[in-house]
Write a structure and sequence with these properties.
Elements lengths: L7 H11 L2 H20 L3 H13 L6
Length: 62
């Protein structure tokens, strides 16, 4: 019986096949903007709202 585990490697390979370079650049820009905002906006309310947004988007941070 073969394992059908959903791995990070499998998701990266699937994204390489399905996404255009412009979509990848847009996603990278979005992630960079989130990171910049979390890094420099250390006000607790902003930080908590961005943290919750990342979880809602399916990004595990811890």
């Amino acid at each position: 019986m073969a394992s059908t585990a959903n791995t990070v490697h499998g998701r990266v390979e699937q994204a390489r096949v399905e996404l255009t370079p412009i979509q990848m650049a847009a996603g990278l820009l979005f992630v960079a903007a989130l990171g910049y905002t979390l890094l420099f906006m250390q006000d607790p309310l902003v930080h908590d709202s961005m943290h919750n947004f990342r979880h809602a988007a399916g990004i595990a941070c811890h």
